[in-house]
């Protein structure tokens, strides 16, 4: 208990120099519940409880009822004001001044990854208080353009701003594997890529309108798809069966993954220059971010079937090019951001397509230029990385789980 971390967070009084294993376990549990805002649903057990357990739980429920807990009673997220609080920066234990190019939550563990132009990516345990660092991996002369977890969370993939090497970090083996040359891939630089939600495929956005589909397991080329113009952004559907490619000319192409055949093609309404695209986890929405700051939200069915689909809503709260889009896991929030302007980030409520009025807090001006965003696997946390080297993190009270 003399360790600084325990002394600060868990000591109830100065005379407490030792804790039994059971007491420590209980304190850690309390700390976790405090950070999460209650017991996550995955931690609840369905076993039969003894009468003493029942009584203690009743006391706990009564306490929560009296003190007020921020576990939501409403199943769907209300519009208007989003209840949230600032947490410690995700990367506070490894400060940097270099731009954060990627911030992403681990798909299974309570961990966040932060990567940037300082040639490194780091993993942090998310507790909302100190976010202790797990490890940092340094890649020599390799300013990271994008870093991303594999779908099962066992690997980290990283590309650079000026290299054709794709680094694969095997977290279980602790090995860093450089993929120098993919046979048949004639690209001088490998930068922008996407991982399919089912973990089978890796999609690399190339030059001259090409997108290359690789096997995630072997990192070998399966086939390529070509559009007119340049590829600005691409994304998989939540079932990994289709790919949306957004062109620099504002056109959207829909591809079948198995046949690499174009299923549909349409012009994003009012867009002269495409920049970013995202699909929702529930398969309902497609969002397209254009160079003029407009985000068009479409019904995904209309994108698959119509040659001239009309957006459900055009979100016009940004005035510079929309460079980042992210849906939360429940498909109730769409985060939109532009790296061209300070504080240019908004959270859009779905399905009302209205912007939450209390984010960002204009007076504070602590967000700066946003380069990357992500929601935790069950929506409890939201993180964004800026050009000042900070990975800002927020706790969203509506969602009880990480």
UniProtKB/TrEMBL annotation:
Superkingdom of this entry's organism?
Eukaryota
Location(s) in or outside the cell: Nucleus, Nucleolus
Q: Which UniProt keywords apply?
A: Nucleus, Phosphoprotein, Repeat, rRNA processing, WD repeat
UniProt lists compositionally biased (Basic and acidic residues) regions at: 1-11, 18-33
User: Major place of localization?
Assistant: nucleus
Q: What PROSITE patterns does this protein's entry cite?
A: WD_REPEATS_2
Query: Looking at the keywords, is Phosphoprotein present?
Result: yes
User: Example GO biological process term?
Assistant: rRNA processing
- List the biased-composition ranges (Acidic residues): 53-62
Checking Pfam families in the record gives:
WD40
Q: Repeats (WD): which ranges? A: 231-265
Return the InterPro entries for the record: Utp18, WD40/YVTN_repeat-like_dom_sf, WD40_repeat_dom_sf, WD40_rpt
Where are the stretches annotated Disordered?
A: 1-71
Q: Does the keyword rRNA processing apply?
A: yes
| SUPFAM superfamilies named in the record | WD40 repeat-like
Query: What cellular-component terms does GO give this entry?
Result: Pwp2p-containing subcomplex of 90S preribosome; small-subunit processome
**What is the annotated quaternary arrangement, including any partners?**
Part of the small subunit (SSU) processome, composed of more than 70 proteins and the RNA chaperone small nucleolar RNA (snoRNA) U3.
Summarizing the function annotation, the protein's role is: Part of the small subunit (SSU) processome, first precursor of the small eukaryotic ribosomal subunit. During the assembly of the SSU processome in the nucleolus, many ribosome biogenesis factors, an RNA chaperone and ribosomal proteins associate with the nascent pre-rRNA and work in concert to generate RNA folding, modifications, rearrangements and cleavage as well as targeted degradation of pre-ribosomal RNA by the RNA exosome. Involved in nucleolar processing of pre-18S ribosomal RNA.
The entry assigns this protein to a family as follows: Belongs to the WD repeat UTP18 family.
**Identification of the protein by name:** U3 small nucleolar RNA-associated protein 18 homolog
Mind giving the lineage of the organism this protein is from? Eukaryota, Metazoa, Chordata, Craniata, Vertebrata
